[in-house]
Amino acid sequence: MIDVELPSGRGADAVTRGFAACLASVTEVPVGELPLPVELGPAVGAWRTWLAERGSGLVPIADPGRFQWPGWWIATVDADGAAGDAPAVAVLAFGTPPGVVLSPQAPGLLGRATADLRIRAAYAVASLDPVIRAVPSSAEMHGTVAGLAVASAAEAPMQLVGSAVAMAGRGLEGDRYAAGAGTFSPRADRRPGYDLTLMAAEVLDELTAAGQVLDFAGTRRNVLTRGIDVNALVGRTFRIGDVLCEGRRPCEPCAHLERLSGPGVLRPLIHRGGLRADIRTDGEIRLGAPIEPA
Q: What global pTM score does this model have?
């Protein structure tokens, strides 16, 4: 996403201009290039056509208050303290659970969980083509373990450790996800991607340089890596020392992380929040262990 200011009036009402700013941000297109009808209803139709010409769509969300999707969506909501008949404002949401990452009309809503907002309408921004195309990776595929952390229970503080026992199909010994007690632990059958989480130290370095300090424990990930592109491990088997793992999907940030680790965490970690992986073999992971393709 990119930072976008509210477009000039052009006759459009405030919520339509706010929605346009959110859509321009997520598509990374200058807001002046978007069609901008006067009212939101006609504008949504115009934006659907505009997106369709570019391979994407704007899909109405039937129950936005319960919507869970690790992707982009735009909502019109009541501003804090506004009366029921007050004009709505537009926000851009992301994460599972979702939080507000852009609120051009009401900046005070930034970082708020969408579950805490009165949502009037919402639309997911989605690709029209579900085909998954393999892309050869030229990313760096060798790195080392720069940190290890576990938490004994959901929302408990992360504890830094020098080594951890990896249990196939479960997680790290002493961690809440190995015990099935994490905030997002599956409540029924086991599902992939909940054994282990990885975070790139380089991302934290960049945040620190930009004035947004977040330490490893604050990410609530298990393994801090250095020297390897963790996003490139999605769909790949790899080893951490002697422990065989399989990358499942990005570990995107969410409103829950923002609540636990402080305001301003959600947005800068979008698409840089780390990796969810399965542990395939038992073993021990130590600081300094190599990380490399299997």
A: 0.82
